[in-house]
Amino acid sequence: MNYDTLRILIDHFETFERETGQQDMAAFSAWLQHKYSPPSGKKEVAPYNRYGDYNGQIAHAVGVLWQHARHYIKTALEDLPLKGLHDFTFLAGLAELGEQRKSQLIAMNMLDYSPGMEVIRRLLRHDLIEDFDDPEDARSKRVRITKKGRAVFGQALQRMMQATYIVGGNLSEKEKIQFLAVAKKLLHFHRSIWEEDLGAPLEDITDKYLPEKKEE
Questions:
Q1: Residue 47's pLDDT is what?
Q2: Cα–Cα distance between 84 and 54 in angstroms, integer?
Q3: Domain boundaries, the chain
Q4: Cβ contact 157:95 at 8 Å
Q5: Is 67-168 CATH 3.30.460.10?
Q6: What is d(CA 50, CA 57) in angstroms, rounded to the nearest whole number?
Q7: Are 48 and 27 in contact, with CB atoms under 8 Å apart?
Q8: Average pLDDT, whole number, for the chain?
């Protein structure tokens, strides 16, 4: 038996498992075939990934992770007058930063105006926040957290810490630091689009923010 070839094959399988998170032999075979196929001069989509290229895998992984996180958050808040994550983050913003204009609070939480106002109305109904006229702008309203809101926020905060601990899962401290570094880079990229080009055609966003990708 050629043990050198076997060791190379094992090394390739470790790389495949690390890159894709899969252990399926059929998928590994397709991955290996793609790796050693002669270049055609044109970038091809990896055949082992049913979600497309690595960008598709990232989008899929982010979506699935959010579904898991949303479940844990819903469980953490289920017997509190908070419907979900945005109810919590709106309260958190007011608890930390103090009173805000409604429009500022919505923008800070990266929501469109209509769903953001629905969160505010829900918090108002439960007396977790109160609104009042903006002394600097008669057309605007400001909101602030109430005493009841602070009490509910304190309860929610403890439970959210437990939920986020579960979200972090089985990553080591080193892996969490590495993950956060990459995630923050990606968040910074998307923040610029959110603030300057939200709703723009995808082709325009690609031309402006990823021009080098169009040439690959």
A1: 44
A2: 30
A3: 1-50, 67-168, 172-216
A4: no
A5: no
A6: 9
A7: yes
A8: 84
